[in-house]
Design a protein that fits this description.
Distance between the termini: 60 Å
Radius of gyration: 27 Å
CATH class: Mainly Beta
Oligomer: single chain
Helix content: under 10%
Number of domains: 1
Shape: globular
Number of strands: 35
Largest sheet: 22 strands, antiparallel, barrel
CATH topology: Maltoporin, Chain A
Strand content: over 45%
CATH architecture: Beta Barrel
């Protein structure tokens, strides 16, 4: 039975903090103004000011533009996305939005393919992702390291399908619900007639990682009022390896095909709309080398065991040089959203529904289940992870004329959501404990889940909201929003937001906002049971290699409960921001924003705890067969509080220079997070390093463009300050401090009048590499940092040919 509670009720100090922040907004509201975007809309013409772009994120007013928004919004056009050669939308946004960071986590199982992306240094699942204003579903992958997040996989979305991206850098749970703590990323799909065909190829300066991308889009009218856009993208990327030994360090082998459809059909007083996607991708990555002189290959073990079933068996006969397990992932991702919207007089309405599914199948090749001896296969089906979601929304708007500068925009509505996490068992050999029960069981490197671990878990939620926005005067805008949401597993939440802006002069303005927010733990985070394996990096030659097994169990498992585990609750946040924007000339615009985010009861994973014989037997009784050789276990817990503060600086300048037009965009983010309290089972020296030092505190991007005739030239300089490679399996004294780094990207485009364009470019043209990873990782063949916020592959050059029609 679920004990129901109000998330806010046990934490009155949260309301006090919000009240103080809201009071600051009321004081600053007469001095507030919206943020400005820094990206040009390439398709609207090079001279169009991005400040005039109509936005739909963070506001429910149809006529709101970037310049008069009360919260900071970056608009990144399709042309901006096209200046980054990577086919991964994560990389594109990370190269354009300094507060957006994406990490590569090689060797971390599914983290090789679903990469954790963060906004303002917070958890990946503390940023909400929308498509055309509708909630995007989660990936089935759950991190069992780092933040333990289950977030949206942005790499499933092809750039060719996107018209522009709006990045709201402010808390918005009162408007959108769970996850919108750090902000909201809203992807607006292409909705224009016409088409484009693009082919890109490239590789790294070292001669590996060759990639080919083919993408196409076609938009066409149909019927009397219809418009449909079809987008298709195929990517094929070879792996890279910067290892100095037999342990890999680089990018995985990836192959993906992704499609999107977006359509509208106008009726007399309404519009039918819909969009959806399907994607299929395959990837593989080589795990760390299993040393043939290690304990896994120790023949004396087999000879000394009685009864000795296989006197001639020796694992070294199968793998005389040791082996590198190959981990494979196959993902099928699909979604469908449909709705009907319209307006009559001062009332607008929008009814919509959505369904989505993300399925990941894992397999392991070139491996062994050592406990099965000679009966073990070398390839294994290692199970499936599935995330399914459904939702229904009813949204209304009413323009209430009270004689103010503009009518009061009153938006209100409701939402129902259901999500299901399903874990399917692997084949028997992937989890079985064989006759050599003291040897490492399961498919080595990645044991599959057993039938006892498999299952299906769901949750429903119901929400209602109201959002009020008005221009009190020509200079003063004020908004307030509230949302109530009830979850079937942990209870209900109340969240609020207040915002305002005011123009001080014709060229100087201020703005402020305060809000509460939350993130609801997913059914997957609450119920996942997962074991992982790998060589102990602290046991180095001449000592024999040892393979260790670690387990993540649900916080409600009796073993976890005995260690203090309990059902998970929501994370709770208070967000305050204040900013200014200045336009002293028509060519120059500057904006500066300060933000302050406090999060209580953050989800974390406890430190590994040694398993007692009694606990091992309890897990075996629960069907966790791998517990026979389980060394340590851990579980999710609402275990710590943090404070995040930062500054965003944006400067844009554009002017006719010589025969062409010069544009300069400078963006800078300073971000720092601190742990302010928590449970000692979670708040370890490693977590402190991970939260406070693992990401660069300062990131700056300077982009310069020059357009002359049919030619477009671009240079981008990316700066990252120092950070710490806080590898989880190393003690903090062995964490390596990585110095600051600068990368330079260059590109030139020749656009012909026929619509054909040719781009030649290179990312990281000076072939820069980060500092070494430190003695432990270097000794096992991993020379560069493992948990890096940027590439370690060196320079990359590419050629792209596009035809618009």
């Amino acid at each position: 039975m679920v004990t129901r509670r109000s998330v806010c009720a046990p934490h009155p100090e949260r309301l006090v903090r919000f009240a103080k922040s809201a009071g600051a907004v009321l004081v600053l509201a007469p001095l507030s103004i919206p943020v400005l975007t820094w990206a040009q809309d390439q398709d609207a013409g090079e001279n169009a000011r991005a400040l005039e772009t109509i936005i739909v994120t963070g506001t429910r007013r149809a006529e709101r533009t970037v310049i008069d928004s009360s919260v900071p919004v970056d608009v990144v056009g399709s042309g901006d996305l096209g200046t980054v050669s990577s086919h991964d939308l994560n990389n594109k946004l990370a190269s354009l939005v300094p507060s957006f960071n994406v990490q590569r986590t090689p060797g971390f199982d599914g983290g090789n393919f679903v990469r954790p992306a963060t906004l303002r240094g917070l958890s990946p699942d503390q940023t909400l992702v929308l498509i055309n204003g509708k909630r995007r579903h989660r990936s089935a992958y759950i991190q069992i390291s780092d933040f333990g997040a289950q977030a949206t996989d942005l790499s499933e979305i092809p750039q060719i399908a996107i018209r522009h991206v709006e990045v709201l850098r402010d808390g918005a749970s009162a408007q959108y619900g769970s996850e919108a703590i750090a902000g909201v990323i809203n992807l607006l799909l292409e909705d224009r007639p016409g088409g484009e065909l693009s082919v890109q190829t490239g590789q790294f300066f070292d001669g590996d990682g060759e990639s080919v991308q083919v993408a196409g889009r076609l938009g066409s009218h149909f019927g009397e009022g219809g418009l449909i856009n079809l987008s298709l993208e195929h990517n094929d990327s070879d792996p890279t390896n910067r290892s100095t030994r037999r342990n890999p360090s680089g990018l995985p082998d990836l192959n993906s095909t992704r499609a999107f459809v977006n359509f509208t059909y106008e009726l007399d007083n309404a519009e039918i709309y819909g969009f959806g996607n399907y994607g299929h991708s395959r990837g593989s990555y080589i795990f760390g080398w299993r040393d043939p002189s290690g304990a896994l290959f120790d023949r004396s073990y087999y000879q000394d065991n009685e009864p000795f079933l296989y006197p001639d068996y020796n694992l070294a006969d199968r793998y005389p040089d040791g082996f590198n397990p190959r981990f494979k992932s196959t993902t099928d991702d699909g979604s469908l959203v449909g709705g009907l919207r319209g307006e009559r007089g001062p009332i607008s309405w929008d009814f919509s529904g959505r369904v989505a599914r993300n399925q990941i199948e894992y397999s392991v090749a070139n491996s062994i289940n050592a406990s099965l001896g000679p009966l073990s296969p070398t390839s294994f089906d290692a199970g499936e992870w599935i995330q399914s979601e459904q939702g229904v929304n009813a949204d209304f708007g009413y323009l209430w004329d009270l004689g103010l500068a503009t009518p009061v925009n009153v938006s209100f509505g409701g939402e129902w959501r259901r999500e299901v996490f399903e874990l399917k068992a692997g084949e028997l050999a992937s989890y079985a404990v064989g006759p050599f029960s003291d040897q490492v069981p399961g498919s080595n490197s990645y044991p599959g889940p057993s039938p006892a671990q498999a299952g299906e878990w769901d949750r429903e939620s119901h929400a209602v909201y109201v959002d009020i926005d008005t221009d009190v005067t020509d200079r003063f805008n004020f908004g307030v929003a509230g949302r109530y949401e009830n979850f079937s597993d942990f209870g209900d939440t109340w969240n609020f937001k207040i915002s305002g802006r005011y123009g001080l002069t014709d060229w100087l303005n201020l703005r402020a906002a305060a809000s509460t927010g939350f993130h609801a733990p997913s059914p997957g985070q609450q119920n996942l049971t997962k074991t992982t394996q790998g060589p102990d990096p602290l046991i180095r030659p001449p000592l024999p290699q040892v393979i260790r097994t670690y387990g993540l169990i649900p916080s409600t498992n009796p073993v976890a409960v005995a260690a203090g585990g309990k059902a998970l609750d929501a994370e709770e946040a208070v967000n305050f921001s204040v900013g200014l924007v200045a336009s002293p000339t028509s060519d120059l615009t500057l904006s500066l924003d300060y933000y302050h985010i406090e999060i209580d009861d953050r989800l974390g994973i406890t430190a590994n705890q040694a398993l007692t014989p009694e606990q091992r037997q309890s897990l075996l009784n629960d069907g966790v067969a791998e517990a026979e050789n389980l060394d340590e276990f851990r579980f999710f817990i609402n275990g710590y509080d943090t404070r995040t503060e930062g500054i965003d600086l944006v400067a844009t300048w554009r002017k006719e220079v010589g025969p062409g037009q010069l544009g300069v965009i400078g963006v800078f983010n300073h971000n720092r997070s601190r742990i302010t309290g928590g449970d000692p089972r979670v708040v370890t020296p490693h977590l402190e390093a991970e939260i406070e030092d693992r990401r660069p505190r300062n990131v700056g991007i300077l982009t310069t463009t020059y357009d002359v005739g049919a030619f477009h030239f671009l240079s981008r300089v990316r700066y990252y300050s120092a950070w710490t490679d806080a590898v989880e399996f190393l003690p903090t004294e062995l964490h390596q401090r990585i110095g600051s780094e600068v990368f330079v990207d260059l590109a030139a485009t020749w656009a012909l009048q026929s619509g054909l364009s040719i781009t030649v470019g290179a990312d990281n043209v000076f072939d820069s590499y980060p500092d070494d990873s430190g003695p432990v990782l270097t000794d096992i063949g991993v020379p560069y940092p493992m948990l890096r916020p940027y590439e370690i592959e060196g320079g990359h050059y590419y050629l792209r040919v596009s035809q618009q029609f």
